[in-house]
Amino acid sequence: MTEVKPLVFKNRGKQRLGKGFSLGELKEVKLSMKQALKLSIPVDSRRRTIHESNVKALKEFLAKIVKPEKASKSTAEEKGKKGKARSVKKKRSKQ
């Protein structure tokens, strides 16, 4: 799986890789700390800043990982309907 690294801004506008995303950045993306750790996203609870570049990086990362659920639900519903129709036909043929 790909990794996501946050950027932290130092003095005079210099950037470096950070140790983890802040809780505020996770909140912007609607992720809890537990969910982030399950997705192997580093979290730094000491940081308090919210950088837009980090929020954007998180959104892009989640878009790659999370698959659209609508497609999976529709196929599951179709399979369920087909299974029910078959069972009804079998019951009628036995009588």
Brief description of this entry?
The chain has 95 residues and is mostly helical. The chain has one domain (7-94). Helices cover 55% and strands 6% of the residues.
For the structure shown, list the relevant keywords:
55% helix; 4 helices; mainly alpha; two-stranded antiparallel sheet; elongated; 95 residues
Morphology: elongated
Query: How many domains, as an integer?
Result: 1
- What is the N-to-C succession of helices and strands? EEHHHH
Q: What is the residue-averaged pLDDT?
A: 80
For the terminal residues, how far apart are their CA atoms? 55 Å
The count of strands amounts to 2
Class based on secondary structure composition and strand pairing: mainly alpha
Cα gyration radius (Å) = 23 Å
Biggest β-sheet: strands ordered side by side in the sheet:
1-2
The percent range for strand residues is 5-15%
**Helix percent band:** 40-55%
Total helical segments: 4
Contiguous low-pLDDT stretches (5 residues minimum) are none
Largest beta sheet, briefly?
A: 2 strands, antiparallel
